[in-house]
Amino acid sequence: MIVFKYTKTDGAEYLAHLDMLRHLNKILRRASVKTEYSKGFNPRMSIYMSAPIGVGITSLAEFCLVETDMLPNDFLTEFNKYTIKGVKCSFAISTTKKVSVAGLINRATYRIEGLNKFNEKEILKASEFYFTNKKGERKEVRQKIFALSWEGNDLIATLAFGNDGLRPDFFAKELIALHGGELRSVTKLNAHVDEKTFENYLCDKFQEGQL
Amino acid sequence: MKTLKEILPLVEKPSRYTGGEWGEPELVASKFNYCICFPDVYEVGMSNLGIKIVAESIRSVPDTCVDRCFAPWPDFGTQLKENQIPLYSLGLKWGLNKFDMIGFSLQYEMSYTAVLYMLDLANIPLKSCDRGEEYPIVQAGGPCVCNPEPMADFIDIFTIGDGEELMAELAKLKLACSSKAEFLQRASELDGVYVPALMQVEYTEDGKIAGFRGKTNVKKALVKNLDGAIFPKNFAVANTEAVFDRGIIEVMRGCYRGCRFCQAGFLYRPVRRRSVDTLTKQACSIVRHGGFSELSLNSLSTGDYCHLSELLDNINANLPDIKMSLPSLRVDSFESNYAKFARQSSITFAPEAGTQRLRDVINKDITEEEIMRGAENAFKLGYTNIKLYFMMGLPTETDEDLKGIANIVRKIKGIYGRIPSKARALKVSVSVSTFIPKPFTPFQYERQISEEEVLHKLEVLKSELFMKGVTCSWNDFGLSQIEAVLARGDRRLGAVIQKAYESGCVFDGWQQYFKHDLWIKALEDCNLSALDYTREFSEDEILPWDFIDIFVDKKFLLNERHKAYDFKVTGGCLSGCKGCGMQKVYKCDVK
Asked: How far is A84 from chain B (nearest CA, A)?
């Protein structure tokens, strides 16, 4: 099995999660990557993606597991030969265990552009932070905000990710409502398992012989 | 004002509007820049084979560039309008008004208002007479242009028939001409070209056609050697899921059968086949390049392809893990060894009529025994869903014919009951559409049934088909009525289409956007009624499409109509040439 990291940029950020799954299927077929298939009436390629990000959010750190015997370097080369615009594989590692990419990744770091500057430490000091979710409900989400800092005029935010995650675009909208600004873009910079980046987590586990 | 980048996150499925698909070449503007415009949403357009053939044909000519554009869904269309962004192509990201020529693919009459919608969003005047040299030439092709008259006000040049050679010829001609007028005049000399401005229509006092003046004999373009004709080597893979997310090969063009209601069956005559070798090569190229997991073997009746078993075996040997779909498989050509490649749980048959008498009327040359055999074969292979297509409102139809539909369903259920070790209960979906008389068919003269008749027939059907495991669906009367009006319309409908569009009609083929009342009002505002076009046409009157020659004799069509009323079956080409007229221009390879 291989776990690989890929980007969603240059227009690919507008692909919805299921469309991305279809593209990954096709890329692997074009690249002649021999993969396992489910054993049902309509066999499906055995690939497992990390949890979805919102349509329009650029990402440098999407992850996916594919059941194949191919060597990681060969996989990376072939994938990039047949991939679509904006989807580029930058890292691949072999594993003998089925790593749950969707289950393990629980944080993500984002670059948010277009916000007016404010004192981010006040949010981190506070015990509560409310925002409006997709359904229009007000929710308290302070425990889902792990780190905030400024890089020039861009806010770098580490937020909870996955099923119970905090959507960065909704978080940004809340900040705009509080402090002003006009959202220009959101980019997912990295995915984490707690404090560690997912890439480092995988490398460590590999060295420990646990992959 | 918002920029495109700001708009995209606000709309549904933004990847429809970004371009950059796998398989689409990086475009560079050239001397002749052409944009294919598909008057429906991206997912529908990206599944269409015709526009890929047109692109391939024009790209075979040096100094050309071919781009694409699809009708934006209303949410994006509204944003474009509000933010004054002209509708743009997906490759070059040019506004449509910057191209030398834009070409619409008219696959379905209900897409006519979407043509106006796209022109409007691109800031191009709707009517040909209002477009000077500064605007692109507006062209249209596709099956609907066999009766181009309803769209004559808006289109500069229609291309009728096969596009493989004609579109390349037009590109060469455009490169050689210095003005729009010169191009249109010279193009009108080509087979397959109709320039509405060069023909005038005269009407009698009662609104019927008195005659045509000007360039009045337009022959359809015919590709005689389909096997050697250009075919797209690679298919672009749609960004978002296309309606048909699969590779397509065109096995044959035309149909051996002669179903009297079927426009495609007459329009695409004569039957031309590709060889097994060519098709296998095309299949391998398309599937490997696109990464498709499914391949569709298209034609009007793929089961009639004489080398089908060999072709399936060849493709299977080269592409062992590919799922093959054989759409348009006639019930009498359904064989177990075809179905084993499909790996599907649902099979579709189209008996079209419920009784043998009515199937004879429409020349649907299949028996009830064949329908039952086809169903039994499918059930033995593990199929548990069956879809059955029928029509209502066919000439000479009675309530007994509708009850016959229920009889067929009952018998099919009985057959399933006798199949041992079934995986699950049988599901039968019966789909009934209202008959629409179409040009260039023996039934082109027939009237369309009224709303009262439709309601009565539906009552009969609903009571008869009230069975466990059976669902029945039908299409909206209003939609069928307007489709009939547009299919059999004349030039006077141009004003109606424009009025309908201006009053808010667009995406009429999508049930949620279809506004029947606005269409009726548009007809009334132009002193017309739907009945003017859904009535029975007399056999001696001039029909709006009579100036077009598709090489099928009008006498043959009339004779077929008479035979329908005598309940006589003609059969298809495979049982011997029936002398439709095609033999005068093409050597058909049937005896």
From this structure: 6
pLDDT over 90 (residue B420): no
pLDDT, mean of residues B290-309: 90
Kindly report the CATH class assigned to B1-223+476-548.
alpha beta
Query: pLDDT, tens digit, for every residue of A115-142?
Result: 999 999 999 999 999 988 888 889 899 9
CATH 3.80.30.20-classified regions of chain B: 247-475+551-575
> Is B18 touching A (CB cutoff 8 A)?
yes
Any A CB within 8 A of B345 CB: yes
What CATH class has A2-104?
A: alpha beta
Find chain B residues with C-beta within 8 A of A84's C-beta: 20-22, 237
The reply to whether ipTM tops 0.95 is no
Q: Taking 70 as the threshold, does the pLDDT of residue B342 lie above it?
A: no
- Rounded Cα gap, residues B106 and B144, in angstroms: 6
B49-59 vs B166-176: helix axis angle to the nearest 10?
A: 40
Mutate to test the interface with A, among B240, B324, B343 (most CBs of A within 10 A): B240
Q: Which residue has the tokens 């749950």?
A: A100
Q: Which residues of B touch A41 (CB under 8 A)?
A: 343, 345
- CB-CB: which of A14, A18, A29 is closest to B18? A14
CATH number assigned to the domain with residue range B247-475+551-575, chosen from the 4 options 3.20.70.20, 1.10.10.10, 3.50.50.100, 3.80.30.20: 3.80.30.20
In this predicted structure, what is the pLDDT of residue B242? Answer: 83
Residue with tokens 């990681």: A72
What's the mean per-residue pLDDT of chain B?
A: 93
pTM for the model stands at 0.93
3-class DSSP state of B108: coil
Q: Using a CB-CB distance cutoff of 8 angstroms, which residues of chain B are in contact with residue A18?
A: 241
The reply to whether B346 touches chain A by the CB within 8 Å rule is no
* Contact (CB<8Å) B291/A15: no
By the CB < 8 Å criterion, does B288 face chain A? Answer: yes
Q: Give the per-residue pLDDT at B334.
A: 64
**Residue B543 DSSP code:** P
Select from B168, B174, B164, B166 the least CA-distant residue to B194: B166
Tell me which of A102-106, A176-180, B330-334 is least confident.
Answer: B330-334
B476 CB near a chain A CB, below 8 Å? no
- Tokens 């893979």 found at: B237
Burial of B197 (0-12, 13-18, 19+ CB in 10 A): middle
